[in-house]
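Fig. S4 source data, part A: sequence.
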Amino acid sequence: MILLIAFAFLAGIITVLSPCILPILPIILTSSIGGQNTGKSRPLGVVTGFVLSFTFFTLFLSTIVRLSGIPADSLRFVSVLVIAGFGVSLLVPQFQVLIERLFSKLAGFMPSNQNRTGFGGGLLIGFSVGLLWTPCVGPILASVISLAITGTVTFDAFLITLAYSMGTAIPMFLIMLGGQNALKGVPWLLANLGNIQKLFGVLMILTAIGIFFNVDRKFQTFILNTFPQYGVGLTKFEDNEAIKNQLNKISGEEIDIGPKAPEIIQGGVWFNSKPLTLAALKGKVVVIDFWTYSCINCQRTMPYLRDWYERYKDKGLVIIGVHSPEFEFEKSEKNVAQAIKDFKLTYPIVQDNDFATWRAYSNRYWPAKYIVDKEGYIRYTHFGEGAYDETEKVIQDLLKETGAKDISSKIDNPTYQIQAKTPEIYLGYERSNLENKQVTYEGNWNVTKEYANPQKDAKLFLNFESKEVFLVMRTKGAPAKVKIYLDDKLQYFGEDNKNGTVTVDADRLYKLINLPIPGRHILRLEFEDNNAEIFAFTFG
């Protein structure tokens, strides 16, 4: 655990070099300036506010959004207003004094004669920056965020996040002190401090406006597309076996082959069956399959699951699909029911909207399979696609242990070869992984925590290498029209692509491209309206 905290601290220090942070740096530098009487207390206030805010919102933002119904973008908007307000205070000193006195009174811990030193104002700026701070995260912070999404916030996760934010605070503090010393140590700069303060005020206001219109995110995309290995290189040091082992531990006690299988947590809606329990299924072989309906990797496992269920259900096999949603719209009972119908799934399925069963199994993957023997013990696990022959062999062996007769040893599963070299790409800022290169935007876009909403005539460019391209989309109401171009030519090869246009009329995964052979291409999407919300690209 100490190793993980140390690496998180180091990752925080390195974060200041991340291209995702560059748009925030003007705020950090400018926030250290508050007039001639400003001392070290303002930078100290900024880093204190940042550490508190970043730690809190990283761990609890998902919970806050879920319980309050307040969109995360609303909090981002408030932070932008705070930043802009402090920019105005640098232009208008009287306004500066006013807001710092107001904050001091609200805080109730700072003497009024210290207002001009700016600790209170710095604290508020730092608190706002902590909410705006969306670094290109590496494995360590990504794992913590994953836990937070499922509502699992442990003391270890708190320590890791705190270490990360404190590591980030060190270069932030040094940048602000350096700015102060440069201004006060150079006679010409000191003589023109008033004008420089106003210039910084303008810079802070422009930065706030840019963040409001998502210019920061467009800039991030540009940098990462231009220098695709830059962001990856910054987090590469986290990708080692020691770190991976520690990350597995903080997600909960790992399940090794052989432990008693956790019970299916009741409370979710069941399909194709009355509610089932492992206790009641003792004596049977049970496959627990964690999936979500818009996941292409999950979809490609379904033919095998259907086959096994039809082949072995009369021999004592039970398959329970645990639907743990990746996106908010996948929590809809109606949407899940439609997906079950579309995929022709006849085995029992339960909704796990609260990730209760997911957490019970300490699961971290879609798809994931846990095979439980007749006594209720986990005898086999597999994450992701593949290993179909191996999985079926385990099913056969465990059925034979139950005394089932006429279990054929013949295994002849069709193989599906994944041709993609481009990894999954998320378009919402919470899980954005655009450091993996590929995506640029044109036109007006509204990027939220979970998805990107293109406005009319907006365009998206994707540099990919694969045979198939899929995109998770939904409509805000009226059907959305998306034109598909491949290497500047209208593209007609795709299950959902009709005459070069995809009509988005449901919340699901859409197949945009299906090429005869894999290759590297440029995909261009043109949006005819603002009705589409796009979540993630996957490839095959």
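Fig. S4 source data, part B ends here. Residues 2-19+27-246 form one domain.
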